Each structure stands twice: as C-alpha cells, then as structure tokens.
Amino acid sequence: MQLFQQIQIYIPLFKKGWWIVALSTLFAIAFSLYLSYTAIPVYQTNTKVIIMPNYLMERETDELKAQEVLEERVLAASHVERVKSTTHRERTIPFLPLTADQIATLGDYSVNAVVLPETSVVDIYVSGPNPEIARILANGLAEQGILVFQQNYSNLYRMEFLDPAPIPTNPISPTPTRDAPLAAFLGLAFGVALLISYEQLRWFLSQARKQTDTAVVTAPNPTTAEIAPPSEYTPSTNGHSQPDPATQPVEAR
C-alpha cells in the first residue's frame, strides 16, 4: 500500500519531466551504438588438450592409480601456467606460419588457460582482432606445449589434442544486440535519478525562498521619530519661558 502511494506521488513528476528520461535513454543508446560500430572487434577461439597416463607402463596397485590421478591434476595446473607465460609464447612464435607484419601484431592478442573441473583437460583461449591469427596462435601454443610436456613426462604421461581451435566467426566484443538494451536500461535509470534530483533541488530552493519571504514580511518595521517644530519660547534661568529671538519677527525701524 505504501509503495502504491509513493508511485502516485511520482506520477505527476514523470508526466511533467518525461522528456528528461527520454533524452537520457536515447543518448545512452546512441552512444552505445556509436562505440559498438567504431570499436575494433575482438574474436576468441579455444583449443583443448588432455593429460593421460602412458598406458605402456604397468600399474600394479589401485593406490598407484589414485596417485597418478592426483598428479595429472597437478600437471594440468602447471601446464596452464606454462601456456600463459610470456616465455612459452616467445618460444612458439618462430614456429607459427605468420608474416613479419602479422607477428608484430601478436601483442594485441591475449592468452588464457584453465583446467576444466574434475578433469585433466586444459582449455586454452586466445582473443584478438584477427580470427585467423587467433586460431593459429592457439593451436601453436597447444602444439608447443605438447612437445615440452612430452620431453619432460613421456615416460609416465602423454598429452593429446582434444579439439583444435576453429576460426571464430562472431566477435565476442562489441555486441550491439547485447550492449544497446543494457545502455537503454542504464540511461533510463540515470534519467529517473536526474529527474528526481532536479525536483528535490527545486523544492528545496522553493522552500528556502518562502522562508526568506516570510521572515521579511513578519519582521517589525522601524518607526521614524517625529521631529517637533522648534518652540517659539526658550526656557530662562528663572524657570519662565521667554520668546526666542530667532523666531520673533523683526520690527521695521
């Protein structure tokens, strides 16, 4: 009930200042679309590799198998850090089928990797402005990572591709269909807040002006003392009034 009463209080306010909310919403949508169509698109692709035991080795006990499962997860976490490192990227670049100009742009590409929960699968992500270069870099990092892993752990484990990185077709950023509704909501909220703030400020200034006017009206007006005309008689030393020479007419001689 109280909420309904509060809404009724603000309805006249919105009827009077609806244009402020509308302009704020339209401006936010226009600004979002401008950024979306002028920004450089970013594409993302990913590839997966898996760490598995080398089945050529014999397992004698279940305890050894459980220990291997634990080691696989530790190795997967270590491989994630290796893939994300700058050193691994620098070692991979010479083996990529890219031109010198394309290699110069690799600084615009970000690399991330995670271990999928409860598995020994490493998911490698590469994001950048060119979808083909992103695919090549992701697969190159995975391939070099497999070679390094095999050099260190081939006697116990092996690493294989699960899914090579495909060429992404749709950018992950910007996305006008997602950003425009979000910008409209933010613009609407900003317009409502601006309208309410403006109305509260106007009410506060109005109340302050009324209080000032009331104080001026109720304040006592100072009375001016009436100045008595000069008396025609001046007091004498014996207590009797005598005519004032200054006010007496001068007799003609």
How many beta-strand segments?
6
Count the DSSP helices. 6
Class based on secondary structure composition and strand pairing: alpha+beta
* Strand line-up across the major sheet: 2-3-1-4
How would you characterize the largest beta sheet? 4 strands, antiparallel
What is the gist of this entry?
By secondary structure, the protein is an alpha+beta fold. The chain has six helices and six strands, in the order αβαααββαβαββ.
Folded structure, characterized:
The model has no long low-confidence stretch (mean pLDDT 81). Strands 2-3-1-4 form a four-stranded antiparallel β-sheet. It has a two-stranded antiparallel ribbon with strand order 5-6. Helix 1 packs across helix 6 (176-218) and helix 3 crosses helix 5 (131-153). The protein has six helices and six strands; from the N terminus they run H-E-H-H-H-E-E-H-E-H-E-E. It has a domain at 43-163: Alpha-Beta Plaits, CATH 3.30.70.1130. Strand 5 (233-235) and strand 6 (241-243) form a beta hairpin. The protein is an alpha+beta fold and 253 residues long. The relative contact order is 0.16.
SSE map:
Elements: H1 2-38, E1 43-53, H2 62-84, H3 86-92, H4 100-104, E2 110-115, E3 121-128, H5 131-153, E4 157-163, H6 176-218, E5 233-235, E6 241-243
Write a concise keyword list for the protein shown above:
Alpha-Beta Plaits, two-stranded antiparallel ribbon, alpha+beta, 6 helices, 253 residues
